[in-house]
Amino acid sequence: MGAKTKKGVGFWLSRVLIGFLLVTTFYPFLQLLNMSFKSNLKIKLDFLGFPSPVKLENYVNAWGFVLSPILNSLFVCAVSLFLILFMVSLTGYAFGRMDFKGKNILFALLLAVLMIPYTLLIVPNYSIISSMGLLNTYMALILPYIAGQQIFGVVLARTFYSSLPQEMFEAAKIDGASEFQVYTKIALPLSVPTLITVGVTVVVSMYNDYIWPTLVLTTGDRMKTFCQIVFNNAAGNGASDLGMLAASFVIGTLPLLIITCSCLKYYLQGMLEGAVKG
């Protein structure tokens, strides 16, 4: 029998730290679930207490309250995501597998954009969208999302494409394949995990965005996104039923939870392929 490994202070300290991080991470969400089953009066008088009685009406009311905003958010995310992935795969392939003049300079400029804080781009982006007459339209969200959300994906895709064996591409070209056929038949199928990683990242970012939709969608609630509706009401500009708002947050979280959990395997695989290789 092998000797038992002695567990030192570092082992137990790491376990305590992990437990503390788990509690601090999940407790707010558990408290949100707790609030979603309580009446408004119960939340104000006994915030930490358990729901008694359980108020399921909160979810019925919340469903009608956030269904349209959730669909608006998912529509914007779907259209933006399709175009982002298309451009990320093409641009990443060009930087990773093709040689052209100014390639390194262009990629350095692309990386430089990552250094610019998002808040500094709000004013020029708003000016551009306003001058194009796109305020209070879905395109006011879609175009800036496409322009701003693809940079991380291009870097990840470029790293992945550049790590693929050169012999595989040379063999395809010897067989008569064009550059575009090599991209569609070889590079693109292999990059699916990387593109899923990019997709999950940008969808979470776009779905949770509050500042930009608030600036460009200002007329009525018909086109507003999920975060706009619930955050505005949570701040006191609308519905005052805290239980219903908590249930709205829970319902609005489900699409992201489903997307993330269903793609988690490929998300992790894509992160490793895009960041470790090359």
UniProtKB/TrEMBL annotation:
* Predominant subcellular localization, coarse grouping: membrane
**Family to which this protein belongs:** Belongs to the binding-protein-dependent transport system permease family.
Q: Which InterPro entries match?
A: MetI-like (IPR000515), MetI-like_sf (IPR035906)
Pfam families in alphabetical order: BPD_transp_1
For this entry, list what GO says about its biological process. transmembrane transport
Topological category with respect to the lipid bilayer:
Multi-pass membrane protein
Q: Give start-end ranges for the coiled-coil region(s).
A: none
Q: What is the official name of this protein in its record?
A: ABC transmembrane type-1 domain-containing protein
CDD domains xrefs: TM_PBP2 (cd06261)
Q: Which organism is it from?
A: Hydrogeniiclostridium mannosilyticum
User: Which lineage is the organism of this entry classified under, starting from the top rank?
Assistant: Bacteria, Bacillati, Bacillota, Clostridia, Eubacteriales
Localization annotation:
Cell membrane
Keywords of the record: Cell membrane, Membrane, Transmembrane, Transmembrane helix, Transport
List residues of the ABC transmembrane type-1 domain. Answer: 70-263
Q: Which spans are transmembrane here?
A: 12-30, 70-93, 105-126, 138-161, 182-207, 245-268
Q: Name one GO cellular component term.
A: plasma membrane
Domain of life per record: Bacteria
